[in-house]
Specification:
Blueprint (H helix, E strand, L loop, with lengths): L4 E4 L18 E6 L7 E6 L6 E9 L4 E3 L6 E4 L9 H4 E6 L3 E6 L9 E4 L3 E8 L2 E5 L2 E5 L3 E5 L4 E6 L5 E7 L27 E2 L10 E10 L2 E9 L4 E6 L4 E4 L18 E5 L2 E6 L2 E2 L20 E7 L12 E5 L11 H5 L4 E2 L2 E7 L4 E3 H4 L18
Parallel strand pairs: 9-17
Antiparallel strand pairs: 1-19, 2-3, 3-19, 4-18, 5-28, 6-25, 7-8, 7-28, 8-15, 9-14, 10-13, 10-15, 11-12, 11-14, 13-20, 16-20, 17-18, 21-22, 22-27, 23-26, 24-25, 24-27
Bound molecules: fe (ii) ion (FE2).
């Protein structure tokens, strides 16, 4: 995240003596996700972040892939995934490739017994239902409906929920998730034509320093296995930090849509990207205003990218019979386009209330067993109906 942030107390210069009131040293840690060349933060702990008491046997959270190769339009009802008490057990991965995994989670209970750290991936949690707080050593990021919560890989965290009804779209990226380069200047500042700016981000607040020793379990995900590590000090024992690497949130409702006289292509909806994928938001907006404009998208042949759409709310103009939480996958290799009647239906419409998240993985995704359990059968045949002239 290319915006400098600082919380708590830090020494006036990096890598120098910094003592507590009792004369002992604070413990400095450099936290970055790309060696010494990417963005990073310097963090000051009460205790060394290395005091491991015990490690336990790992268990597998690797997805069960049942379709390696797919050339069929598929759809899934993610709200049919059963809610579960535990956050980690509730996470169901539906699609994977070498760059990312995509899944959903419906956790009912806040994390109390353990902390979690994903050492494999940046996590982007889109909050579809529920609200709460992301607790980290950098402070707290509050979240609510419509927030994308971005957690850099390696960040130890706990999620606290305000109710038992929570629905999360989960994206794990093996590379850092960033804003598109075309919206930033050479200094990293978001430009005037960007559909969002730095003020739209929710940064960590209210740094709490936990001076606690005992047994603290961190479940660490590494190469798809989850290890249980017992540490001797609380992971949120930080008195201060500064830098460019930390979790933050961005609300889909702060994305200011770009509109035009005729249909604008999907990249205008983009706000995040990682290695070999982009993430876009379709938000309520005025439709194209040329007198003969067709607001529905034209058919397009995405020969080099899968396209995943997650439907959040409102009527989605190009699809018939779409439910909240429904996912469509249009694979690279075959064209796709509006459902029968959708093009005619869109002509003359002035605005849309649609709300959806689009993920375009440039490498084909594999389908997991969890996904097939919530598949909408025969979705690929749903363009056969005769157009309705409304
Ligand atoms: Fe598309």
């Amino acid at each position: 995240m290319p915006v400098y942030q600082q919380q708590g107390s830090i020494p006036s210069k990096r890598h120098v003596v910094y003592r507590k009131k009792d004369g002992s040293l604070y413990h400095e840690e450099l936290f970055g996700t790309e060696g010494f060349s990417g963005t990073s933060s310097l963090v000051y702990h009460l205790y060394p972040p290395t005091m491991v008491k015990e490690t336990r046997k790992p268990y597998s959270a690797r997805p069960d892939i049942v379709i390696e190769d797919n050339l069929k339009a598929l759809s899934f009802q993610s709200f049919n995934v059963q809610a579960e008490n535990d956050y980690l057990s509730s996470r169901k991965i539906l699609f994977v490739n070498d760059d990312m995994s995509i899944g959903v989670a419906a956790p009912m209970k806040s994390m109390k017994e353990y902390f979690f750290k994903n050492a494999d991936s940046d996590e982007l949690l889109f909050i579809h239902k529920g609200s709460g707080a992301l607790k980290t050593m950098y402070g707290t990021v509050d979240f609510e409906y419509g927030d994308y919560v971005l957690i850099p890989r390696g960040t130890v965290y706990q999620l606290q929920f305000n109710s038992i009804e929570n629905r999360i779209l989960l994206i794990e990226s093996h590379s850092p998730v960033r804003t598109p380069k075309r919206y930033r200047n050479e200094f990293g500042q978001l430009l005037e034509h960007s559909p969002f700016c730095e003020r739209d981000f929710k940064f960590p607040k209210n740094l709490e320093t936990h001076d606690e020793q005992g047994e603290f379990e961190i479940r660490i995900k590494k190469r798809g296995l989850i290890y249980s590590y017992i540490y001797a000090s609380h992971p949120f024992d930080v008195v201060g930090w500064d830098g460019y690497s930390y979790p933050y949130a961005f609300s889909i409702f702060n994305f200011e849509p770009l509109t035009g006289r005729i249909h604008m292509p999907p990249p205008i909806h983009q706000h995040f990207e990682g290695r070999n994928f982009v993430i876009c938001s379709f938000v309520p907006r005025l439709y194209d205003y040329h007198p003969n404009a067709i607001p529905a998208p034209y058919h397009h042949s995405n020969i080099d990218s899968d396209e995943l759409l997650y439907y959040v709310d409102g009527d989605f103009m190009s699809r018939n019979d779409i439910q909240q939480g429904q996912i469509t996958l249009h694979p690279a290799g075959i064209p796709h386009g509006p459902h029968p009647g959708a093009i005619e239906r869109s002509i003359g419409k002035k605005e849309t209330q649609e709300l959806a998240v689009m993920i375009d993985p440039f490498n084909p995704v594999k389908i997991t067993r969890e996904a097939l359990q919530i598949e909408v059968k025969d979705y690929y045949k749903s363009w056969l109906a005769q157009p309705q002239h409304v």
